[in-house]
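quick one if you have a minute, typing this from the bus. theres a chain ive been looking at and ive put its sequence and its fold in token form underneath. please have a look and point out which stretches look like helix strand or loop to you. anything you notice is useful, everything is just below.

***
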Amino acid sequence: MSTGRARYALDAREAEQAAPARAEPRLAGRLIALGACGSIAAYKAVELVRLLRIEGAEVVVMLTPAATQFVSPLTLAALSRHAVETDVLGLLPDQRIGHIVIADSADAVVVAPATARWLGAMANGIASDAVTAACLTTSAPVVFCPAMDGDMWTHPATRSNVERLQRDFGYVMVPPDTGELASGQSGIGRLAELSQIVDAVVATIGARPVRQADPAARPPEVPAPREQDLEGRRIVISAGGTAEPIDPIRFIGNRSTGKMGVAIAEAALARGAEVTLVAGRVEVGLPPNARLVRAESTAAMREAVLDAVFAGHADALIMAAAVADFRPRQAADTKLVRDGALTLELEPTEDILAEVGARAAALDPRPVIVGFAAETGSLDRAPDKLRRKGADLLVANDVAEAGSGFGSDTNRVVILGADGTRDELPLLTKRQVAERLLDRVASTLDARGAPAHTGATIRESP
């Protein structure tokens, strides 16, 4: 088996396609927790993830602090499709305690490579890292695979710790091999062949029932890394609702939380874009790598969007904010007193999307303009809105539909194109909707032949 670094850099899906297929994967439906410790052999964890996935396993990885110096958590997250646990106090993306969820749901824990330090800590119940803490917490079988210098392996303390793990804890060891070591010497201490480790995991699990078949009980998957097809692109995204003041305390607003706009911003950043996020009133965390401009009123949002698109030479504008259609014609300077009925005279707010569409028509290349239409009961008005606003794409949804309204984590949308296309998406997470929308934005930019910007810097606005 080759251990060259190029081999370990293969994308998981490509590698799985290149590997010989088994008639029946031996770990289908299983969740395997892989813990890697601070040995030079930690880089082999990347290949081990691949082999376990070929066998049908879902894999979640834990690293000791020292292991992160040898192998990138990002690489392992990309291949395993799970966040990598590196902190005993770390939380999963859904805010559950990482090592606890892993311990409760894994069908087996594999520690490879297991260092002398880990052997000593585990034998004495010292949970100073996520790997040891998960092993102390779990009732799943544990397979450990030592890797270290030969003299360290033969030391009486190491031998005593190994004996205790096997005798008292019932852990299964895959013993180290003999060969060239990181020290330059040759002897016992090399991590066992990865195929042997996989075989040991299969044998250890045997016919045990799956511990947690429900995906909700397992660590959540994270989005697969995307191609950097927006690298160098300047994308302006608006998010959240606007607030139009009635007096210094009260305002006219809407139910938007900003989840859709923030999901688009996070997806665009992950695809290499330089993002300016114009945020109204939002109820979710904002991505730290975006240039953030706060704009709570429609007037403030108009000024911020026009500046970001035209002065900032944006490649695309995605108006995901729920901008108010009306505002009080006159806002009171002091708090209004409740004294009988109150009549408000409203006036239309600025149509930001239409103004950008009109002004952008004279530009070459013209930025891609995307609007959103939140409707109730019917999307019949959406095609006319697309035409009137001068947009390239319009994302329409029925906010009265279950799972598709403000504040939900999902959305069912129709993406209308100025070229007459109509893409009706099923109910998806808002991040999935964002990815599908950005696919259209990226392809439109490529079709226009607009060169990507270079050398721009993203920073937080004061």
